[in-house]
Amino acid sequence: MGWKFIPPNNWYKTGGSTWLIVTSGATWYRRGVSGTEYHLDYSANAGVTWETIVILDPTEDNVIIDAGKLYRHRIVGTTYKVDQTLTSTGYAGAENTDWENLYST
After folding, report:
1. Which of 70, 75, 103, 105 has its CA nearest to residue 89?
2. Which helix (DSSP H) or strand (DSSP E) does residue 53 occupy?
3. pLDDT tens, 1-30?
4. Number of H helices and number of E strands within the chain?
5. Cβ 39 vs Cβ 54: under 8 Å
6. Count of beta carbons in the 10 Å neighbourhood of residue 28
């Protein structure tokens, strides 16, 4: 079974929150803004209950240090991004020279 959007290619709005929901059978993921926070959630039962994967404050970068690498995850507009440093200059430097984007939703 392939992945599909609920509703197709649109944002789903409920209770003041706006979500993009992607499904495959009973496995659902949703991302969006709830209040002032960005959420990435998972459901194993077709959206009956949700487990939060990550909650971010869109006004702050969140930094992770792992095995000598410095990562950050952040919100740019409505896009969730994960970046890593490439040089000691890091995020103070230029994209694709001192740091790079690894993932964007």
Report:
1. 70
2. strand 51-56
3. 466 667 655 667 777 777 888 888 888 888
4. 0, 10
5. yes
6. 20
